[in-house]
Amino acid sequence: MTFFVSISTSKDIANLSPKLGKSIARIALALNYLLARHADKESNILFSPLNIVQTLTSVMLGTAGQTERELANFLGIAIGRQLDERNKAYVHKILGDFLNSVTVENSNRVDVGLSLIMAGGIFVQEGYPIKPSYIENAKSIYNNEVIAVNFEDTTAASRKINQWVSEKTNGKISSIVDPSLDPLTRVIITGTLYFNGNWEYPFIPEATKWQKFYLGSNGKADKRSVQVEMMVNQAEIPYYEDRSRGLQAIGMPYKNKEFYMYIVLPMFGVEVQNATTCMTPKDIETIVEKSKMAEVFYVIPKMKLEAEYDLRHSLETLGAKSLFSPTNANFTDIAEGIYASQIIHKVTMDVNEIGTIATAATSTNINRGGYVNFRADRPFFFFIYNVKVGTMAFWGKVQKPTPYK
Q1: pLDDT digits over 47-61, tens only?
Q2: What are the tens digits of pLDDT across the range 167-214?
């Protein structure tokens, strides 16, 4: 992973925020590659690089030495020297302000039809004296909490963690750990995110039909398929095509046009995993910035996606190793003698017709002529992007939409 800025002076710190979007895209592409390597070919991938970054920045807040440097490197920051207390506070304020500017922490944004609920929790074994300054800073800067649990009572510990997660996500995510926890666990780091947005141009529910979704890159020629509900719409939206790369993409805006879901469809014969492996953060920027407004007739699957990962192996592969080492972990600013056992990440997402339905207006739009045809009826990948801040909130790769029959 390449560093995007070296932190050694106040000027470097001031330049940190504009570079974070690229770093989050880089993390998303790296994690997509690693998660795909350990999954079967027909598995979907879904995660929130934004939520992962938010969780790990709050962890970095409590670390020092090698552990702090490794986490900073993972986040795309090269620490030129050990941060003093003043610079460390400044760095985390910038990181926290950036993350909070992207997220919507509750479901009260009725005015924009958007709900983005993020929760981060660091669960520490009871008896470890957690520093009050860390508890205060993790909450005030990153909206994350430090909570004491007794991992020796695995049933009670898992129940406490799951109740916390359920409360933070308004019941959308009911559990994230099970009672088979290792009783020797000392720290579990969790990140959860539930997203539900109203489309700026809602789909017509009556037009949604069960149709074939082809499981191979050649569409009908591959013959293997499942039946999924396909939604239909037509609107003037961002459209991108790169024949040299074998890609076409659309950007579907959510209410207020701050967040867009970009669906990227490899052209016939291009495997979706091969397409994502070749992507760079610059390619993500290009899709967003070079898309042109066009009248598009688009058909996409109605999906209910869910994924859960223990990211320990991925983080270790990407260089954050000491975090999990009983002998090398340095959580000095949280408590002495602790190390991470797991980093659990769970995401749920609904992609459906929900929105403020104006049937007459939408019906008129659907009948316009001279349009681009975009049909996502074979494997594709997508990302939800905040165009105002310039960063990615979600990444997903869809091999077989759910539900299907």
Answers
A1: 989 888 888 888 888
A2: 877 787 788 888 888 888 878 877 776 776 789 998 988 889 999 999
pLDDT at 107: 45
Helix and strand totals (H; E) in the chain: 11, 16
What is the value of pTM for the model shown? 0.87
Residue-wise pLDDT tens digits, 266-301: 998 888 888 998 899 999 999 999 999 999 999 999
In this structure, what token pair is assigned to residue 53? 């970054």
Under DSSP, is residue 66 helix (H, G, I), strand (E, B) or coil?
helix
Q: Is the peptide bond before 379 cis (omega within 30 degrees of 0)?
A: no
Integer CA distances (angstroms), 327 to 73, 122, 310, in order = 20, 20, 21
φ, ψ at 106 (rounded to 5°): -145, 180
CB-based contacts of 206, cutoff 8 Å, min separation 6:
none
Q: What is the CA radius of gyration of the chain?
A: 22
Structure tokens given for 202: 């809602």
Q: What sign has the CA pseudo-torsion 319, 387, 303, 270? A: negative
Question: Which token pair is 287?
Answer: 């899709």
Beta bridge partners of 374: 298
- For residue 31, what are its two tokens? 């994690």
- Residue in this structure with the two tokens 């999906």, named with its chain if needed: 303
Please check whether residue 63 is in contact with residue 332, taking contact to mean a CB–CB distance below 8 angstroms. yes
Q: What share of the chain is helix, strand, coil (3-state, %, to 5)?
A: 35, 30, 35
Determine the length of the chain: 405
Closest by CA position to 306, among listed 37, 48, 55: 48
Quote the CA–CA distance of 47 and 381 in Å, as a whole number. 12
